[in-house]
Amino acid sequence: MKNFKFYHIYLLLFASVLFLNSCKDNNESVQTSYENYISTELKSEFTSQDAITTFTKVAPGAVALSSLIHYDVEVRKMTYKTVFKNKNIQASGLVCFPKATGNYPVLSFQNGTNTLHSEAPTVNPESDLFSIIESITAMGFIVVIPDYIGFGASETFSHPYLDAKSSTQSILDLLRATKEYGTGDNVLAKPTKDLFIFGYSQGGWATMQLQKTIEKDYSSEFNLIASSCGAGPYSIESMNKYIVDKIDYPMPYFLAYLLNSYVTIGSFTNPLSDFIQAPYAAKIPGLFDGEHSGGSINAELTTQMSTFLTSEYRAGYATDAKFAGVRSAFIANSITAWKAKTPMKLFHGADDVYIPVSISEKMVADFKNAGVTDIQLVTIANTDHSTAVYPTGLQTIIWFLQLKP
Fold first, then answer.
1. Cα–Cα–Cα angle for 386, 392, 396, nearest 5°?
2. N or C of the chain: less Cβ packing under 10 Å?
3. What is the CATH number of domain 31-235+335-403?
4. Burial class, 53, CB count within 10 angstroms (exposed 0-12 / middle 13-18 / buried 19+)
5. Would the pTM of this model clear 0.85, i.e. be above it?
6. pLDDT of 60
7. Where are the domains of the chain?
8. pLDDT score of 25 more than 80
9. Contact, 112 vs 136, CB < 8 A?
């Protein structure tokens, strides 16, 4: 009887192990020793041929890269721990792995301005843009795409739009969670310390903020190889002036998003009504609920700045003591040039009227004045803010592949 009892317990333990292992195929749970990683969920898998098809369908100019695509890919939603407003929270992002044993550099892509929960990378990983970025994995990268706080696993929070501290912290912690996950015995593709970073619009700003933070504080943790920043609002002060001084600005939700975000997270104490006229000021908080697209928000506002913004703000944003806290917040979240060590390229559409090319021109000039030589501004002719996205991506991928260890 004792032997039978022992055998019975052994079978139960064996079955439990099989059950737990089978669960890990699609959902892999946290180990208590992990500081950031919580779990992953398999979102999709595709072959190297699928990657080639995606490249040639979405970005025909990338057909020349087909010969560099070698790996099948798995795309996972990763949930991880980060900090927001001094509290521990859970956030998420996509992490894409080559399905082949080896050590791979990491490429982190920061996406542009988004207001829809349904368009977060982990919610809509099959969008044209994210499909292209995921397919870069097939060239021998581990690709990371943060959701940002306010989307995915953290969508109950209001997105802290263009808030440098929370943006950088959440991206760094996703990269750390990816490294922790990569230590698992069942993970074939292991991340190295080598890191490429790339972003467009809000993502261009986030990428440059990330680069500055890593170079300043985390250069021993991450080995930055290259940084590609596309059409970012690097100087929020300059962007504010550009918009306020316009007679007609076609994307009023950009400024509404910024001001509403800063009010929500307590960057200053002014109410929205100090900046934005009725009836728009009262509408704005409800429009940024994760259910309205940028286009639908614009439709509820006006492109006429004399009607949209208060005369007090238009006249006194730069000097009035009433807006001192606003100016401080803009300065705190703008990027000032430093003696950057990482090779940098800034991309910008020549005909961009949402974020003017002068923002990137001034940024590059400031870097050069700071003694930076390995930096280049690539102005893309005959493109605006939207149509410059894919040329920026294609040139970035080619450049990263040239530098890839």
1. 155
2. N
3. 3.40.50.1820
4. middle
5. yes
6. 62
7. 1-30, 31-235+335-403, 236-333
8. no
9. no
